[in-house]
Amino acid sequence: MHDNINFYFDDLCMSTSQPKHFLSVAIYTLAALFLCYEMSLQAAIGVMTHSLMKAFEITAKGVGWIHASYFIAYTLMQIPAGVLFDRVCARNLICCAILCCALGNLLFAVSHHVILAVVGRFFEGFGSAFAFIGTLVIAAEWFKPRWFAFLVGIAQALAAIGAMSAGAPLAWAIEQFGWRPMLIYLSMIGLVLTFFVGYAMKNPKTWPESQLKKIKKTLVWDHILQVVRSPQVLWIALYAFCAWAPVTIFAELWGESFLIERFPVTLTYAGMMVAMIWLGLTFISPALGWLSERMLNRRYLIIITAIIGTLSTSIMLYAPHTLLLSWVVLFGFGCAASGQILSFVMVKDIQPKYLVGTAIGFMNMAVVAGGALLGPLSSYLLHFSWSGTQRQGVPHYLLKDYHHTLWLIPLCYAVALLISCLYIHETHPQAQEGTP
Q: How far apart are CA 323 and CA 310, in angstroms?
């Protein structure tokens, strides 16, 4: 049994030293915990929309800007974060990033003016920009290449678990204690995580010193241009945008509100329903990574997930169905969104190792741009559809208002399907070489 475990770790990790086997897993786990943390912060807005409208006396447009401020910072920092991970110690970057998230969240929690809330969310997004990239860079540098796709899936699954914690559990806690105390507790968790990362994480760089010097002498702009000059990278990035944007619109912003209007359910129950999206991501993301290696094919899988997304979201929004079927459809929504994890694997397939951080940063920028662009757009569309109805002094949006807004979601998956069928080529190294 002991020999089998050693063989497994030898196959998994870059190093053949047994203590470093566990060090690799521990470092990846710490980075993944940061990913869970930032996703819980990111998705928290979805269960606080009515609380925020009441606290700051704003409409859907105001909530949209609070939501977008996070993604504007997150999106703008993706390429700089990727470049920094190619050049700077990961531990220092991740520590500073977690601290930025915790302090930004604290400012958001204590703010009594919408401008301060926007600033707090902006700093949360700034720090969160380093979470997913850092986890994937560590996976690329501490583990063997054949495991990268699976570890990307695991990272996405853990991120989904973090987002699930911001669904029904946070909705229940907000109903019991209020949204401000819960955000303060989340800030405290971030401070504790900062300490553990600073104490336990090691520098993952494994390149020769001569190569590191060469990388540091290369202009940052040259790295960025080398990534974006590839037409395949651009098509994959557009696919990733379309595959994830629906999650930012529905699961992180208007999902609970839509379901409360669509069915006679409470906020807590609606939070549990939205959690099915994250549950689908949790189970399917690692499976997609594993399957893409077993099948030696990434492209077929992103086509299948785009089809599932188009069908499931169209049914969810516009087809008559029961409450029970909604749970199944929302799980399918999560399965479809998990296709975006393969975009990171595909760009790693076609980029040199010294550009992994920059390429992943560019791809994650494309993924989260949906929150920066379509989040405010959906909020404006919803507000323009509003008939002026209010409940307890808070704008109340009818089911028809959501129907006039959320057509963006199935449209995104239809575009993703078109792109994956017509413009994206297979990237798996063995498939390209024609080897079995």
A: 20
Vertex 70, ends 195 and 333: CA angle to 5°?
Answer: 100
Helix (H) or strand (E) holding 203, with range, is none
Structure-token pair, residue 353: 């190792």
Give Cα 39 distance to the centre of its chain: 7
Check residues 344 and 4 and name the one with the higher pLDDT. 344
Assign 394 to helix, strand or coil: strand
Whether the per-residue pLDDT at 98 is higher than 90: the answer is yes
Report d(CA 328, CA 312) in Å as an integer: 9
Count of residues making up the chain: 436
Q: What is the average pLDDT value for the chain, to the nearest integer? A: 82
What is the fold, at CATH topology level, of the domain defined by 13-201+216-428?
Answer: Growth Hormone; Chain: A; (1.20.1250)
Q: Which residues pair with 119 in a beta bridge?
A: none
Q: pLDDT (tens digit, 9 = 90+) per residue, 245-266? A: 998 888 878 888 889 888 888 8
Domain ranges of the chain: 13-201+216-428
pTM exceeds 0.70, yes or no: yes
Other CB atoms within 10 Å distance of the CB of residue 109? 18
Helix H or strand E segment including 390: strand 390-391
Instruction: Please work out, in degrees rounded to the nearest 5, the angle formed at the alpha carbon of residue 15 by the alpha carbons of 10 and 17.
Output: 80
- The answer, yes or no, to whether residue 218 has pLDDT greater than 80, is no
Tokens of 392: 């307890």
Distance of alpha carbon 415 from alpha carbon 154, whole angstroms = 26
pLDDT in tens, 178-215: 888 888 988 999 999 999 888 877 665 554 454 455 55
